[in-house]
Every structure is written in structure tokens, then in C-alpha cells.
Amino acid sequence: MTAAGAAVRAEPGRLLFDVLAVGGALAGQCVATGVSLAEVQTWPQAPPHWVHLPETVVFETTNSDTTDCPPGWRRHSREFTFTDTSIPPAKAWLSHVRGLLSLAIAPAA
């Protein structure tokens, strides 16, 4: 992930990295994102399914819960199929997360 442009930092049970949102309500913002350590054990053969985000990142519709998340975080279910092997897996995952962030809606005022 670091080589793909997102420095990784470890916390108990998960990996965190910052992603620049390129579209939607969060465009131009650097957003902390993460993934559970349990889900990256078989990476890249089986990519993670859940994307961890701060609770302030809101989607109109999503399947989410707080499993493996510290207070203030939620994980969102997002299918990711790594099929284009011409792109390094980490870059493909970052693109997937950026796409998800582009669907975020502006938080209620």
C-alpha cells in the first residue's frame, strides 16, 4: 500500500491508510480508511470485502456494522473483485476505496 501511495499504519486488529477522495461530497479531502487484519491474510488471492471508515463518512444506502471497529468507526460491505492483473493489487484496492468514497453524501448540518 505504501508503494501504491498510501502509507499504512497498524492498530490492534486492523491496518489504516489515508485516501484522497477524488469525487463526491468528500472530493479533495484526505480520509482515513482501514481494513481488518483478518481480511488481509489471504491478500491478494482473496481481497478484503469490508472497508473501515470513520462514522462521519455517510452513504445513502449501505450494509454496515461495527465488527472489528473501534469507537467512532464503521465497516462497509463492498464487493471487490480483482480481475485486471495489469494493475498492482494495492493500486486496484485504492481505486476501489476512492470509488466508494465518491458515493459518500454530505453529513447533515
Topology of this structure?
Blueprint: E1 8-11, E2 14-20, E3 30-36, E4 50-54, E5 58-59, E6 64-65, E7 73-77, H1 89-101, E8 104-105
What is shown here, in short?
This protein has 1 helix and 8 strands. It is mainly β and 109 residues long.
Please tell me about this protein's structure.
This protein is 12% helix and 31% strand. It is mainly beta. The strands form 3 sheets. A 3-stranded antiparallel beta sheet has the order 1-2-3. The chain has a 3-stranded antiparallel beta sheet with strand order 4-7-6, with no helix packed on it. It has a two-stranded antiparallel ribbon with strand order 5-8. A hairpin with a 7-residue loop joins strand 6 (64-65) and strand 7. The N and C termini lie far apart (34 Å). The mean pLDDT is 88.
Q: Provide the gyration radius in Å.
A: 13 Å
Show unreliable segments: none
Instruction: State the separation between the terminal residues, measured CA to CA.
Output: 34 Å
What does the overall shape look like?
globular
Average pLDDT rating: 88
Could you state the order of secondary-structure elements as H and E?
Answer: EEEEEEEHE
Beta percentage is 25-35%
Largest sheet: 3 strands, antiparallel
The strand order across the widest sheet is: 1-2-3
What would you call the structural class? mainly beta
